[in-house]
Structures
1.
Amino acid sequence: MQESKYKRINTKSLFEEFKSSLENLDLAEEGLRLSRRELYKPGDDILEEPGLDLKDVAADECDTVYVIDRNSMSILTCHRDFEKLRFPTHIPGALAPVVQNPEGIAVDENAVYVIGTFRVPEGGKKEGLVALGKKDLKVLWAVLKGPDGLPLKALTDLDIDSAGNLHVLEKGRHRVLKLSLSQAERSFSEIGRGELYKPENIYVDAEGALHVLDGKTGYFVFGADGSVEEREITSSIQEIVSRRRAHDSRKNMYLISETEKSLRFLKHIEENSPDSEGIFKGTYLSKPVDSQVQKTRWYRFLLEGSFPRGTKVEFRYYISDKLLEENELKELSESEWEEGLPGSSAVQGEEKRDALFRTEFEGRYLWFRTTLTGTEKLSPTVSSVTVFFPKVSYLDYLPSVYREDPANRDFLESFLAIFESLFFETDFEIDHLGRYLDAAGTPPEFLEWLGVWVAASQGRGDQGDRKKVPEAKQREFISRAVPLYRERGTREGLKNLIFLYTGKNPIIVENIPAGCIKENQDQKNENKKGNQYQKNGNQKGNANQNNETREGNEILERKKFLFFPPEAARVKLPAGKGTDKREISLHDVLFGGEKFSFFVFFNEALAEAELELIRNIIEEEKPAHTTCKIKVLEPWFCLDGHTYLGENTRLKRPEFLLGKHSVLGRDTALGAENGPDVAEGNLETGIMLIQPGPVTSSRDLDNLNRGFGHARK
């Protein structure tokens, strides 16, 4: 009896590969589903006062909203879940010492960025961009010139993306300037100089694409990959795109009203998108599935996914020995497509649909068409389509006498098909049992079972309140379990495991006192020298030299990762209540007093879920007698702290030439030594450094002006 084969389409890439056409469906990671559209539901005004004159709005990573009020020359803050807030330093007139006419605002985790007209020394005025501290509105830096060295002209809007790039709309020169805030040397680059003629507003969406509304040429979307798309503005969105707005982490919108007296909240919602006839329906048409054999009798098909009540999934197919082109396939009449799923198929449940192909249709190629129908909120999802071939019949197991009469043969074959459908899946699983032992091919529901064989769950599975690790990471660990376990309990093994699950590269430091290393190294040197001398006295000098070179290389390699201060290095601790001043070794300050401990440092921020996952990995992979601490390195330089050259520090020669060689530490504000008498001609990059005095009330308006200065060349 011929063995049954199958073709399974169960990943996004396979659905894309076999796609001939797609209508009103999305190819998501979970499978085929109805296309979704984003809408905004009008909400209440969350900030409304008669005396407000709101100019621009922005939201930070905590969904706190910042609004510029030109009437009070201040920055108002609020949160949609709380009452309106006012930071102590965001008092009326707080912006007046810096900005005469604010035009726009953007916020990130480090600073508040404001564009507008600045007050400069000697009563002058210039347009530019200024960065203010979030806590106290202290001026950190400012930019007055563009990439071409010309003064900035008519800055009207700005926004910041998740990658730390600040986009500033320079209406006076018909362009958008992009400033990377993550680089030490801040410099602008141009976007859209050729496409824009009368730009009015910009904003950056969640995918990092820049949207620009041009009053003359239309609506442009500049992708993060450099692509440019021109869109038409319909009357329904004209009101929104032409006004200042901001989006929070949940994609909700904050919109300044036309009167500029209130801030409106628009809730972001997603729903299924209807087709051209207003029906929530979509269709997937496949390319041919090739059996490689002419006149193939196709056996059965299986659809897996999620089919909630109130939704419908249809499956039609066409079989032929002739390979049709795509246009020929679309010209087939509806009657030529055979219905595979009857209307009563919903009784099969909400997770699968299956049926047999009609035996009278034979052919090498099979095309299928899947139609999904849902509602505004509900959508069926097809995660996999499996086609089995060739036809396998239980009639082949019976004596040939049962196949002699055509009429009796067809009836008996149809009757036995009932039992075939009941036992087929069991027989198929037995025949293909080997796939359950393959990390790449085992079904998701058996992945954790397979992982138990190599301890892959290890606290990284869905146990208790632990966050479940992505399926792809689990499969990768299972496939690499043997080489990873060879390194278990070592620094390199722990580093590789953390990188596999999180993509983060840790720095692992073991707490080994310098004295122990020196004693062991000296003893090792003496033993090697003695053994080498006894073995061959004539080559003693060369052997010692080779040993010293090898040992020196080992020490240099170790110093790349370890820092062991000598015992003589002491730190004085301040006197406490009822205690005198005392000293403690620098080694204990950095690494603690425990002997069997190690430290895992990270040079980039970690989410809480990642941190919890790393803790679980370390707890189950470290040697039983050791302790561990985790530390995220901050990008600043401080004495008696965890400072690693090339990781969280930048050292330069002692010269100051802003924009070329200088690197400023975090939370740094510098001022010109000679104050406001520096000539404007000495400006090289257009970046102005400002050192204001403390602004404690609106009466200190002149205090900030006296601190203005420019960097000398």
2.
Amino acid sequence: MITRSKIMALSLCFCMLLALLPTSGFAEAEVEEETVAAAVPNPWKQKNIGSPAITGSASYDPAADQFSVSGAGTDIWGKSDQFNYMYQPWTGDGAIIALVSSQTNSHDFAKAGIMIRETLNADSKHVDLLLTPTNGFTFQYRTETGGTSQSVKIASTSPAWVKLERKGNVIKGYVSNNGLNWGDLGNLTLNMNASLYVGLAVTSHNVSSLSTATFDKVKVNATGDVFPPTEPTNLQANSVTDTTAKISWTASLDDVGVKDYDLYKDNVLTQANVTATTYTFTGLTPDTTYNFTVKAKDAAGNISNASSPLTVKTTTQTDTQAPTAPTALISSSKTSSSVNLTWTASTDNVSVYEYDIYRNGTLAGSTPATSFNVTGLTANTTYNFTVKARDLAGNISAASNALSVKTNPASSDPYTPEVVANNLETPWAIDFAPDGRIFFTERNSGRVRVVVNGNLKSTPVITLGSPFYYMPKSEGGLLGLALDPNFATNHYIYIYHSYKTSDNKVANRVVRLKENNNIATLDKVLITNLPGAVYHNGGRLKIGPDNKLYFGDGNYGNKDDTLTYLGGKMFRLNLDGTIPSDNPFGASSPIYSRGHRNPQGLAWQPGTNRLFVSEHGESSKDEINFIEPGNNYGWPKYEGGNQNQPGITPPLIYANGTTWAPSGIAFVTQGPWAGNLLVTNLKGKQIIRMVIGEQNGKPTINSSDLNYLFLNKYGRIRDIVEAPDGSLYFVTSNNGDKNGDGTPDKLVRLAPNF
């Protein structure tokens, strides 16, 4: 069984076709083999291929389910084959799966990964997927015995799940950053023997030193659904009486799907096959302590590790006693827009469940901790705070002592940056819930994440499964996100993502999710078969002032701009997926505008409800367009400054002689930047603040009215939004992006000082 760790990585994948020649027997007898006595379990063996100057070694830790492999040698590249190979013979269908969890940095081109090779000779045909310490991943293959290796380099140095899968005459290679979502990248036809060797390869590129790599959760001949679900998390008691305990937990994740849960009381299975994420234990004894755990199961019978135990003590009788009031309420820190509160814990005859924080008599938030950060405040303003405690029976304490706090005066800088979440996996789009939660997508992992009370939840809101598709070095995956205007009551989330069609083509679609307690499930597919490709998938998704759903798709490598082809278009739908009757090309067409190369950002100008869109140009000539229904914006015939053509709408401004690679955009509604348009830049590694003018009833942007913010401070910046409290939030796109440098991605808040 494999328990997935939370791995910070790039999601990248590839596909290889091999036509297998029928032969019999293994190739083991061709060369002398080296076995490692008692170091690794059978049927694993070891061979130092190509006689490296320093002999490598291998060991296995059964408690951690981890192999450690050391190897030296010139390289696995070109005609060189010098490395340490821990392998086993293999025939028939199956797969090798491993997590490359660490690698020593003996040389920038040291390599560690998984390999399939025809023989144990140094000149053998082979296919491998190898990780270098600083120069990214490389997919390598030698198609002829004694020939020269070839490779495709992938820009990632993060730890990654890797898989080579063999089915008949097809071998596919995959990489995943979480062991849940796998995809493919291209294909290769190669003649090799039917009987092969499969294993783990390590080389140092430095002949005088060893490189060591660790491989977790290695599985060979793993077919079908081999991954158990993740263990349930966040067990908590929702209510406790003298004879009952109602508990809940956060749903587990699985690469295929969680079927149900088994519940244990004091390590004894009490209730099997529970499909919900809540359960009430009955028939308990008063004044007794119990330990509850939960395990998840999938349809293949794989069972997760047990959750962390939840200890609950039943009451002696029906609980009518409220907790004591919190005491010693103080402010530990404050800014011009926030106040951090701490207090002394309350006591209760059973237990305190949560604290409610009140600002000027209105509930500002709740927390089980004894501290809370109240945000969205006005500078140089006095606020009154109190805190009350609640127990599981719903009894509420008296209020704490009242605390009066005056926020700091506004700073000379309009905003102060602060990192909200770090070590993210290619975040792409952000939106806010009415209760203050921050939802965002991670493109490569297929995850929707949530920040609650300033803290990133470790469990995703959802991790997309099949047919979700992410291809490495591409611009597809999980892209846009928007919350329904009535999210407080219907909990709808709209997302745009790439997927594989039934005929194995890449496409994009928009789906609606339904969220409950920070967990979402698929509710409805709104539109499918939007053109997909390696690049130019568009993907930004917003809900307009008219309560319609707007989104765009790119037109990568396609010259077709007719209304029957959906690439290179902006779209408008009703929130249920139907087509609005007043769409510019009729009630049967979702198209809103045309002639787009790769639209990346959408925003409406406050007070006018004009739609602005950012768009990638070819090499340069990135554009900011004012979108009017039914208009044609030129691509593929025109872009940048040559769009003053009949029937073509030119951009408001375009990058001339430089490249912005603009992405998310947002209008500012508060503070000194009110009315300005903020445009995030990927290649430009900045945010451009644009002043919007007016001429002849149309918006204008002059090149002299551009201000460049945070240049090279955060790297590639993907999206920016304004929160209801006036804060600005943006996400970076450095780790897992095809042009990123691998540095950890962040969600950054610009806290207002006005």
3.
Amino acid sequence: MSDFPRWKYALVALAMLFGIVYALPNAFIPVPAVQVTANRGAAPIDQALRQKVVAALAKQKVVAGEVVVNGDHLLATFANTDVQRSGSDAIKALLGDGYTVAFKLQSTVPGWLRAIGARSMPLGLDLQGGVHFLMQVDQNDVIDKQESSYADDIRGLLRQKNIRYESVTRNAARGQGIAVILRSEADRTAASNDIANEYIDLNVANGPSTGNRYVLNVTVKPEKLRALALGTIKQNLGTLRNRINALGVSEPLIQQQGENHIVVDLAGVQDPAEAKKLIGTVATLQYRPGIGYAGDAQAQEAARTGNIPPNANLYYMRGSHQPVLVSKRVIVTGNELVNASSGTDQQSGTPEVSVTLNATGARKMLDFTNANVGKPMAVVYVERVTETKMVNGKEVRTPKVTESVINDATIQGAFGKQFQTTGLGSQKEASDLALLLKGGAFAAPVDIVEERVIGPSLGQDNIDKGLKAVTLGLALVLLAAALYYKLFGLVADIALVFNLVILVAVMSLIGVTLTMPGIAGIVLTLGMAIDANVLICERIREELRNGSTPHASIRAGYEKAWATILDANVTHLIAALALTTMGTGAIKGFGVTLMIGILTSLFTSVTLTHAFTALIHGHRKLKTLSV
């Protein structure tokens, strides 16, 4: 046993040190806190506002741990959730609607641990509490967009083929397709053939004819509509994931439910209003030709009389509220953005959003700006929110779309793929808009149809039960090993404890969210980990019965048991990998914990116990073994 390599001793020592240091943050319990951020148009967060908050809390006799300004938000910590709630009420009464006041749990991990990347494991919705949303995707909007797009394409095709037509319009009923009115039977036949050949996803049929009006009915095939619906759900799932990740919400659960619903669980978010602000906002930009400039005579007249040109919309400028006429034609939209970042304009010092378009959007923007240098172009900010009202004791949710112009400027020169948008009220607004644009636009609008807050008291009850399960399971396994295998059992117990420590450290380092299924995975890992030591001890006993010396028995026990241990753990690892890659939610959480636990068990059960055994027996003359 004296030939046990020194580098393995060093490896074991480093692994134990790593486990202790990176598992340590989980011993620091986060404290309830209230976070305050400024809304659009409100005064920024500064020390003067902090003093007002401190005074308001003192006046209401609410004891706060600390009240500090961190960047663009203010943070106040409290001793428990009851005081947190009282503090939130006092702050809301002081600041009014100009600020968003949200609950959160503030980490208490010391700075020196955070400096080396050590952090506590985030807790899942079942342990930490949080908010649950059920969101409905507006599939009718998909049909509207698709039929409008096909109508534009058909007009272009008919012009390209020199086929005379009177009109191409969508039918009044949604989903009933497009009516193409032509001037002769020959034109209708030619149009029918060309449309059928060019667009294989469309059904084309002759409609009733009166006089010189020959109708062609064009509808989207049902299988194409189903594919669009499925694609819409998938794109909205991706957009939600990107948006929530960009806005800093940790480990969300986002998954499809049924044909047109999405479930979103956000652990640790205690304020549903703040969570809805993060995920429910549907904001995008539209770049449109300007009819004139903000506040000019034509716009003032249209605002006063309501006589708006048929090719224009009347909007108002953000901030100044001056009327401005904007063309109905859309050059590019947020759907054609591939990247967005906030910054400051070097000349004016005002906030800006730098935009990068995809190839299609860049080509359209370049073509338009080339042909319209010296003419106005408006940037329209479109935001969709859902208003909730109580009607006859029932919640009625109504989607509301607000549109305003944030920039109305003259095109100074041609540009295409990259450019900047200015006119935003603050750097925070520019940053939020950039994050929403970068996260992607929804393929179809989504409305929150159900929301539920899961209180932290439920989570604490689950945590207590989980800790009792882990403690009881670990204690029974330790006791059984020590009684049955004596000294070797005690060595196995030490390895089992460090297996738990290293497992928690790895999960904390890579940011695995701990849930009740995760705790079940930890308990199962501890139960399976002792199996390897049972195999080793039984091999050593067998070698002793065969007449081998104690040192030879130990060496042979580890060598001969290794192949069996590896085979058993590889099969477990394959099962855990399948759960991790194919499962979602609770199943995936269980699989991740089990997979990490198997890998740590392989190390602690073999290498760590071998190191301790070598330290105890390596340089001693042995007549027998306590096994």
4.
Amino acid sequence: MKLKANLFFFLEFLAVGIGTMNLAAAQGRAEKTFVYCAEAKPSSFNPQLATDGATFNATSRTIYSRLVEIDRATSRVVPSLAESWVVSPDGREITFKLKSGVQFQTADYFKPTRALNADDVLFSFERMRDPNHPFHNVGGGVYPNFVSQQMGALIERIEKLNDLTVRFKLRRPEAPFLANLAMDLGAILSAEYGAKLMADKKLSNLDTLPLGTGPFGFVWYEKDKSIRFRAHKNYFAGPAKIDNLVFQIVSDPQLRIEKLKRNECQFVSEPLPGRLAEIKGDPNLKLMSQPGPNISYLSLNLEKSPFSILAVRKAIYYALNRESYIKQVYGGNAQLAKNPLPPMMWSYNRFTPDYDFSVAKAKELLQQAGLPNGFETNLYYARVSRPYNPDPQKMAELIKKDLSAVGVNVHLVELEWQEFLKKSRTGELELSLQGWTSDNGDPDNFLNNLLSCNSISSGNNRSRWCDKRYTFLVERARVTTNIRIRTKFYEEAQEIFKREVPWVTLAHGTVFKAARKNIEGYKISPFGFDDFTTVYFK
């Protein structure tokens, strides 16, 4: 798919040699073209339809904005498109006052005639909430994070009180509701653009030719190769410091580093651990790092034989030498994972016992399960570097080796990124390497979003595990604002998780980013996304 480019933008790129990505030779104004070597293509140009970081970087952190955001320093909910809000005493009504004069981007395919108003908020949420909405089934009709957060059941109605005031009426109080609105599911789309697409009978363009209020407007997508954006000069928070932003899609992590060294891109995420010292020693590059609120895990699909047997799941846990993975996959730049929550997150249960590496114990459990000679299975992965797992292929190979020692014959299956995401959501994979990074700093984002019975239908629960006591606890935690009570519920939920073993928890990875030395203004997000709004050339 090759989408129509803004002619001026395209000619400017040709003038500076962007067609060959030889930015090292570019001079003058071309220095305001910033190229990000991205590890994967987006699954959509609407973040409401996605769960993957590649899509969120290319959409909700560039094209779109939300009513609220999470402050990086404090993890508190702060204003964005909404300048303020009021919560009713019973916690069931949240009334948002929108900022006045927020402008949508202008594109070749649509030129807005008005600023953001309440109609856009209703349009964006009703599209996900109402199965009869004309856009609901466009793009597949699956809104995984909206479903996992049970937004459809939670929201009773959304009311437009006036052009700049919107009220959400909830069926019950919901502690993480505001934080969940800061997730990528909260992207605000243009109702006016939607009406034009309805009139033109081109509804699918809403998700392929996007339009939002964010810092960069969409220009061009050359399928599997690059995405091009232009700075939104009327961005309500102040225009970006670069004129043009390019996502060059480079799945090979080695090649990403070579392109960075040649100045064909100015920024890469998740550089391979084996090349960190090289990057650090290069006078033209700089390396940034930060502990990551993430989890890497091996998902065991309980709907696939023999993973419905608890003894089998425990045997796999004991069979894996996870400490060795920290050295061989992460280069020591990770922490062994015990719980599904990262240790930095409140309500982390430090008292849950872990499973030690023991080949003998694994074999004993397989014997108890009636599988003394082991069994055959498939392990699926995508060779895409993520903050929680910089080298999935190496991880898969190590797991295969460890499981073979206890009689489990593993066939490794590498899938293309989008196919991997799709088959993970639909429960087709027996064993798969998965991971997650916090969207909003709330434990609910892990414990409910990834592991409750309710998250199976959204596809976020990759293991298809449903424990009623566990789900009861995380549901109770959602409806109280008392942190101490929520913590107790979450601590018990982690104990159940550890006993039932729907995952083998692997690691919490340190987040690394590499950039050219002359790049300033980038700050690592604790929530796993890359935001280039404040980036500039020194």
